[in-house]
Amino acid sequence: MPGTTDRRHDTLFIAPRRRSQEAFDVSTRSAVIPALALVALGFVSPAYAQEPAAAAGATATLVQWSIITAGFALAFAAGLAALAQGRAVSAAVEAIARNPSASADIRGNLLLGLVLIESLAIYVLLISLILFFLPPFGTPQVG
């Protein structure tokens, strides 16, 4: 009938557009939120500016902030490395399930990828330990 619409025909053209719109919304949101956070930090940063006379007592504050920074860096690195390793293992298991004859190659590439991901987390751990145990910007002058 010319006056009726075929529901199956409509959903074939509407569903991909919806999916692409949702993907656009997610990608826009993932770009806008960090940009707004960066702008907010830019407005707040002058509040932490120091006077030249206050620089003498700033060594303890600098050490405290370097420890806090190292802790946050280690937390981000450990969390993101865990997420990356989870995605890598998931993709490798799925690939082995699809093509069991290529399991040796997939397993080798998986182990190489996991080693590289873990090495990045170890590098951040090394930098964090340096910030924990070495005074920043040389030795503090007492006196």
Low-pLDDT runs: 8-15
Strand-pairing-aware structural class: mainly alpha
Find the count of extended strands (DSSP E, 2+ residues).
Answer: 0
Terminal CA distance? 95 Å
Quick one: overall form? elongated
CATH topology of the largest domain: F1FO ATP Synthase
CATH architecture tag of the largest domain: Up-down Bundle
Could you tell me the mean pLDDT? 75
Tally of distinct domains = 2
String of helices and strands: HHH
CATH superfamily annotation of the largest domain: F1F0 ATP synthase subunit C
Sheet having the most strands: none
Strand content: under 5%
What oligomeric state is this? single chain
**The top level CATH class name of the largest domain:** Mainly Alpha
Helix content: over 70%
Query: Counting H and I runs of at least 4 residues, what is the number of helices?
Result: 3
Helices and strands, with pairings:
Elements: H1 7-44, H2 58-98, H3 103-133
Molecular structure report:
This protein is an all-alpha fold. The chain has two domains: 8-44; 59-143, F1F0 ATP synthase subunit C (F1FO ATP Synthase). The chain contains three helices and no strands. The model is unreliable at 8-15 (pLDDT under 50).
